[in-house]
Design brief:
Structural class: alpha+beta
Number of helices: 5
Mean pLDDT: 91
Order of helices and strands: HEEHEEEHHH
Strand order of the largest sheet: 1-2-3-4-5
Radius of gyration: 15 Å
Largest sheet: 5 strands, antiparallel
Length: 157
């Protein structure tokens, strides 16, 4: 496993900071990693556990998880008693939504009386960076991401 910093750490931290500032997450149960995806590409992943008390009050007895990777973007799912997700649904539009868009999605999930039509949130995005960070330059050179993704993630550096 690569050592820190991971190529997408600045983005992961920006999203987790925004969610934490609103009291929406359990940061100790949230993580980012950069792992081999069956030998094909290195997969950048973020997994964020929403606050367990708020999730239960909203009707998610086994919690709710937000997840991101550079292929699928942001998704979410309610938990099961076996630490799996019941289903996965798109959380936000676009590959690298700004942290406020993720906060809006999390609030909808935790609001109670959830309806699947409430998601995905229409996201706003930071303008792509003109300078790509060294970790993202390596991911780009290795074929793990494209130029557009590298520029959008670099906007959080």
């Amino acid at each position: 496993m690569p050592t820190r910093p991971l190529p997408h750490d600045p983005y992961a931290n920006a999203v987790m900071d925004a969610l934490e500032a609103k009291g929406l997450i359990d940061r100790d149960d949230s993580w980012a990693e950069y792992n081999d995806d069956n030998g094909e590409i290195m997969l950048m992943e973020i997994a964020i556990t929403l606050d367990a008390n708020r999730a239960e009050k909203a009707g998610w007895t086994h919690g709710a998880l937000l997840k991101w990777n550079q292929i699928r973007g942001w998704e979410w799912g309610p938990g099961t008693d076996g630490a799996l997700l019941q289903y996965v649904q798109r959380l936000a539009t676009g590959p690298v939504p700004d942290p406020d868009s993720i906060v809006r999605g999390a609030r909808r999930i935790l609001a109670g009386a959830f309806d699947a039509g409430m998601l995905p949130v229409t996201s706003t995005h930071r303008p792509p960076a003109q300078t790509i960070t060294p970790p993202l330059q390596k991911a780009l050179a290795d074929g793990d991401i494209g130029l557009d993704m590298a520029q959008h993630l670099s906007a959080y550096a």
